[in-house]
Amino acid sequence: MTVAAEQRIVKRRMDEYLWWEKSAANVRLRALLKKHFLDFERVAIVGGMVRDIARAGKRGFHSDIDLVIEAPAAAVAEVAAKNGARSNRFGGYSFVEEGWKLDFWALETTWAAREGHVEVKCLEDITRCTFFDWDAILYDLKERKVICGDSYLDGVRRGRMDICLLANPSYLGNLYRAVKRILAWDLEPGPKLRAFIDKHLDDEGFDGIVREENKRCKRAFLPMFGDAQTLRRLLASKDDRRQIATVYARQMSFPGMIH
């Protein structure tokens, strides 16, 4: 399945996956969303799931689910306490149930809002809070609508990823995600992302993302590049990126998703 041409197609794909799919896993997911989150007036899935389904349909989604809730922090904390959710280091909560991992935040406790980088008053403001512009997309669960900028899908279709909000709580984590996405999806980094990589992908940064991969993956891929200079050069070369994406998919049995 190709990148959705219009927002209405993303909506249709999300509607189908969340509300119409009859697989056991999807039935469990619907029950979880209704049980824990749909009593809130406004709640949205943000980033990864919506991005991947927009990009490649349901076959492109293989991850956890992130939700942002437009409600007071105390009300969201109450839901977390009732379900034994653990606090995560970014101001939200996390729990696993029925085979699904869900991370959720109150709107006011999202990192960019809490740190004062973005004035956040409603779900729509979250599109200005993500590090990657590819993550600046939401699906409103109650209204069943997609929220993103007018140029969002154009960037995904062109395979060009850039930075939306530079300030972030984990520069090493985002460097790791940037490198893995560029290599796995054969993406062209935009000017702000290229500058970020040039600044942070030094010898120390290279060692850091290798450690990140070792923590997250059973098989390491990044050490094959040897050093930061070689990896930076390959990331900047369109032909090299394409060859690497093919090798990466084959060697890592890559399903098409980097969270």
Sheet with the most strands, sense and barrel status: 7 strands, mixed
| Mean pLDDT figure | 91
Spans of at least 5 consecutive residues whose pLDDT stays below 50 are: 253-259
Round the Cα radius of gyration to an integer and report it.
18 Å
Shape, please? globular
**Percent range for helical residues?**
40-55%
Order of neighbouring strands in the sheet with most strands:
3-4-5-2-1-6-7
Query: How far apart lie the N and C ends?
Result: 19 Å
Judged by helices, strands and strand pairing, the structural class is alpha+beta
What order do the helices and strands follow?
HHEHEHEEEHEEHEHEHHHH
Beta content: 5-15%
Describe the overall structure:
The model is unreliable at 253-259 (pLDDT under 50). 46% of the residues lie in helices and 14% in strands. The strands form two sheets. It has a seven-stranded mixed β-sheet. Strands 8-9 form a two-stranded parallel sheet. With 259 residues, the protein is α+β, with helices and mostly antiparallel strands. It has helices spanning 7-20, 24-36, 48-56, 73-82, 111-114, 152-157, 171-185, 191-200, 203-216, 228-236, 238-252; strands at residues 43-46, 65-69, 86-87, 93-97, 100-106, 137-140, 145-148, 160-161, 188-189. Helix 7 packs across helix 9 (203-216) and helix 7 packs across helix 11 (238-252).
